[in-house]
Amino acid sequence: MRHGESEANVAGLIVSDPDIGCANFGLTEEGQRQVVASINNYQQQYSSATKIVSHPISKVVCSDFLRTKETAKLSAKILALPAPQVEVGLRERFFGDWEGKSDTHYPTIWALDNDAATQVSQRVESVDDVRQRGLSVIAKLDAQFSREVILLVSHGDMLQILLTAFVGIPAQQHRTLPHHAQAQIKSLIISSL
């Protein structure tokens, strides 16, 4: 699940520095409404005859950024689950020199995802590093929890980059995948053969 609309989204700012994002730029009222609608929609799909998964969400895990913690806390409350578990590995991709600038710069940053030297010079976290960070969290949770449905609450870039590992494309091609909308839940089902 991507976090709901945040104050940074409304302000049009890139907020990826943990020193800023962990304490500031939480959800807007619209973001809270998005989360409620998304969780309610998920529950309706779960209870319908065409279930997406065979078990209900049993655990919520989130990034330590304020916008994801608020999304996760609200989700857990609606689902009547314990407080979310925080995993720093689910943090926003760090955008380095672009921090605090207009979010209109995202396409420029993404266009440089194949140019490692430029990304390094601008202190932008590489897509390969982001993907590995996310996969490490999934591996840890998979080892810790068996047969549970876990709601991961994170950020747009993290989730799209992470998804590349499961659809078998290079992390640099994350923008070829469908956009992960605010508060949208996408199912990632790993079945054992």
Identify the notable features of this structure and list them briefly.
three-stranded parallel β-sheet; 3 strands; 43% helix; Rossmann fold; mainly alpha; single chain; 193 residues
* CATH fold-level name: Rossmann fold
Strand content: 5-15%
Give the biggest sheet. 3 strands, parallel
The second-level CATH architecture is 3-Layer(aba) Sandwich
Output the CATH homologous superfamily. Phosphoglycerate mutase-like
Succession of helices and strands: HHHEHEHHHEH
Our count of helices gives 8
In whole angstroms, the N-to-C terminal distance is 26 Å
- The overall pLDDT, averaged over residues, is 92
Notes on the structure:
Helix content is 43%, strand content 7%. By secondary structure, it is mainly α. It has a single domain, classed as 3-Layer(aba) Sandwich (Rossmann fold). It has a three-stranded parallel β-sheet with strand order 2-1-3. The longest helix has 19 residues, at 29-47. The model has no long low-confidence stretch (mean pLDDT 92).
Secondary structure elements and pairings:
Blueprint: H1 7-11, H2 18-21, H3 29-47, E1 57-62, H4 66-78, E2 85-86, H5 106-111, H6 116-121, H7 127-144, E3 149-153, H8 156-167
Parallel strand pairs: 1-2, 1-3
